[in-house]
Design a protein that fits this description.
Blueprint: H1 2-12, E1 21-24, E2 29-33, E3 36-39, H2 45-60, E4 67-78, E5 81-82, E6 86-93, E7 97-104, E8 109-117, E9 120-125, E10 130-135, H3 138-143, H4 149-157, E11 167-172, E12 176-182, E13 186-193, E14 199-206, E15 214-223, E16 230-239, E17 243-255, E18 270-271
Parallel strand pairs: 10-18
Antiparallel strand pairs: 1-11, 2-3, 4-5, 4-6, 4-17, 6-7, 7-8, 8-9, 9-10, 11-12, 12-13, 13-14, 14-15, 15-16, 16-17
Helix pairs in contact: 1-4
Length: about 270
């Protein structure tokens, strides 16, 4: 069951290609508000202007929403090989609720139902008739990545993760632009497309060499349904002491519809 909880954490809760030139900036970009960024340290004005432009374009593609629902196919591989194919239904209310129904695809039955709020996680294991009640911190314990409620919602939606304001370098190639930031926890190399500024890749490397955590996230097959660019295909690899690979393919999705989040715990289930 731990692997499936891990997958739930990944679901909710994360290289520059063809690059030719690298320009060191050694600058800090700090957001004063949602409308502008401010340069705090010196660099060549053309470089700073370019970074401001890239940030603005990246921000313009950030998905804002009230609710989100989707059906996706999930495949994963761990140290024991390929796991069973899963069909996962997700419903979210921004900053409030994440609801998951995890189904074993081959048998077409619901194995788990999960409800996550900013401070709690509830999991119904229908196979074993067990309910787990946990703090939302359980996501971080299982995934070994510091997921909080906001970051896991961003992961599902496909918005950038852990992008710190301390940009130390950038790379511009014929098809991609990459920004390297240095945060308290991770070095974060984020890659976007030159033409559309859509997120393509995130590479996280742990600043703590003793932990040596890495996460490699790819976003592709963008759909413009409803006027919102949305990556319908994701590949993710997470490594620390062990490695897990995950593929997510969104079969259908919708934004800003009225949703319900049914979660009833049967009386004969054991609560843990």
């Amino acid at each position: 069951m731990k692997q499936l909880v891990y997958i739930a954490a990944v679901l909710i809760g994360i290289t520059a290609i063809g690059c030719r030139a690298t320009k060191k900036i050694n600058t800090v970009i700090a957001k004063k508000d949602t409308a502008q960024t401010t340069i705090l340290a010196g660099a060549h004005e053309d470089s700073l202007r370019y970074i401001r432009e890239v940030y603005s374009k990246l921000a313009s593609n950030t998905i804002d929403y009230k609710t989100f629902s989707a059906k996706m196919k999930v495949e994963y591989w761990d140290k024991d090989g390929k796991g069973p194919d899963l069909t996962v239904f997700v419903r979210m209310q921004k900053d409030s609720i994440i609801w998951l129904s995890v189904n074993a695809t081959v048998f077409s039955y619901e194995a788990f139902r999960i409800l996550i709020t900013p401070d709690s996680l509830k999991l119904i294991n229908k196979q074993d008739k067990v309910v787990q009640l946990r703090s939302v911190k359980y996501l971080e314990e299982v995934a070994q990545i510091p997921f909080d409620f906001k970051s896991v919602q961003e992961l599902i939606i496909g918005n950038p993760l852990f992008l710190d304001s301390n940009i130390v370098s950038y790379r511009k190639g014929p098809e991609t632009i990459s920004l390297l930031s240095m945060g308290d926890l991770f070095k974060n190399l984020i890659t976007i497309g030159v033409e559309n500024y859509l997120l393509q890749h995130i590479k996280l490397d742990d600043q703590n060499l003793r932990r040596n955590r890495t996460a490699d996230l790819s976003f592709s097959n963008y759909s413009g349904q409803g006027g919102i660019p949305f990556a319908t295909y994701r590949k993710m690899s997470f490594t620390e002491k062990a490695k897990i690979d995950v593929q997510m393919e969104f079969k259908q999705y919708a934004f800003n519809e009225s949703l319900s989040y049914p979660f009833t715990i049967p009386k004969n289930y054991t609560v843990q």
